[in-house]
Each structure stands twice: as structure tokens, then as C-alpha cells.
Amino acid sequence: MQSTKHILLVLLTLFSLNACSSNPGSYTVMTYNIRHGVGLDRVLDLDRIVRVIKSVDPDIIVLNEVDHGTLRSFSVQQTDSLGRSLGMQTIFGRSIDYDGGEYGNALLTKYPVIQFRVIDLSVDSLREGRSVFISSIDLGQDTLVIMGTHLGLSPEERYQQVERIIQNLPDSKNLILAGDLNFEPESDTYRLISDHLVDGVQAVDSDTEYTFPADKPDSRIDYIFISTGINPLRLPIITVEDLTIASDHRPQILEFVIR
């Protein structure tokens, strides 16, 4: 009987610790390339994306590869649809016109958006157009700057795009740059951006998980970079089955506080 009580006490303690794992006054940011809702099974299903996001309940989300009224996505404005399902404010940031609509990045947030603008990062008319959005979010006592982007496929293109991002970095200590950056930590482009911002996920755990492809990831190309005013705390973990099939990427997630 005593042994049973001891086991129950241990289980209750573990449950309590897990329930209180989020730190008071902290926020959680996620970056996720959703491949316009098409999973590795080639099925378009935004509900799976919603389940992945809901499993960690982030406060701020940067999404890549979002369709806005395209024919291939049945003219759905995906940013708005996801916002309704998640109960979050949304803003779409166009990168290109595509298939009767638009295609680009998006911001979802639980907090009021003060400002939002999009900067074109396209460097070659023969390549897919790219952009970065810069947004200010009112957290109450603090203002947070969020930048979201999806960089190009060639190393030369990415390097030029990161140079342009650095030129447009707002003068703020409370800044996060997130997205599918399409480079790995050993690249020159990673080193370039690391001269200005800190890899927030690696700052918490140097043994960071890969993000691509979602079913059997073997590379890390999605990032959350932070400035000096952001204190990274921990990396929330996703365990839902949809994680490995909802998109071709896995998200990166970071819990943080403002210093």
C-alpha cells in the first residue's frame, strides 16, 4: 500500500511539473514552413497544420509558403483560415503573385500588431520572388519586432538577401528574425547573420534537432534568430503524429522572455 501511494505521489509531482513548465511572463514563438497545407502524402489539409500549432499553443507564429486566394488552394485565404481556427490575429505578407492569387509569408499573433510592412528581397528576375516582413507587436510593457522570411534556393541569392535584411534591421534590442532560411549552420550565410543576431534555438541547446524533411529530418534550414534583448529559455516539444506528415518541414519553437 505504501509503495502504491509513493508511485501516485511521484506521478502527481511529474504532472504538476509538466503543467507548469512554461515560465511566467514568457512568450513562445514558432516558425513553420507549411507548404500551403500540402503534406508529404500530397493531401492539402490545413487542419493538420492547426493541430501541430495547437500542440504547443505559441503566442507568435511566422509561416512560410502560404497561399492567399490561389486556385490550387481552392481560393482560400489561408492566413485568415488559420487565424480563425487558432483564435489569432493574422497578416499576410506577399512575395509573389501566383495561380490567380498570392503566395508568401504570414504573421499570426495573440497580441496587437502596431506596424507591418514588406520588403522585396528578389535579386534575380529568373528566380522566385522573395520578401521579408517587418512587424511591431505590442506585448503590453514591451514592444517586440518580428521579421519573417523565406530565402532563396541558391547560396549566392541567399547571401545577397541576408545582406539586404541586415541593412534593414530595425534599431531594436527586442527583435526576432524567423523563417525557412534554406541554409545550414556551416554556411557562409549563417556566419554572416550570426555577426548580427544570435541563433536562439542553438543558444538553448547546441544539439538542435533537424527540421527537413519532416518524416526523416537530416538537415536544419529553419531558424529563430534573436537580438540582445531576448532571453531564450527552452524549446517546447511537439509530439502529435501530424508533425511528420502535415508539411515537408518541421517547425522551430522557442520560449523566451524580454530581458
What order do the SSEs take from the amino end to the carboxyl end, as H and E? HEHEHEEEEEHEHEHEEE
Number of domains: 1
Q: Helical element count?
A: 6
Can you identify the CATH superfamily? Answer: Endonuclease/exonuclease/phosphatase
* Arithmetic mean of pLDDT: 92
- Using the 3D structure, state the CATH architecture: 4-Layer Sandwich
Number of strands: 12
Structure in words:
This protein is α+β, with helices and mostly antiparallel strands and 259 residues long. It has one domain (24-258): 4-Layer Sandwich (Deoxyribonuclease I, Chain A). It is built from six helices and twelve strands. A six-stranded mixed sheet has the order 3-4-2-1-12-11. A six-stranded mixed sheet has the order 5-6-7-8-10-9. A hairpin with a 4-residue loop joins strand 6 and strand 7. Helix 2 (46-54) packs across helix 3 and helix 4 (155-167) packs parallel to helix 5 (188-194). It is globular and about 45 Å long. The model is unreliable at 1-21 (pLDDT under 50).
Q: What would a concise description of this structure say?
A:
The chain is of the alpha+beta class and 259 residues long. The protein has helices spanning 2-19, 46-54, 78-86, 155-167, 188-194, 200-204, and strands spanning 27-33, 60-68, 89-98, 101-109, 113-120, 131-138, 143-150, 175-180, 198-199, 222-226, 230-234, 252-258.
What distinguishing features does this structure have?
alpha+beta; 259 residues; globular; 24% helix; 6 helices; six-stranded mixed β-sheet; disordered N terminus; Deoxyribonuclease I, Chain A
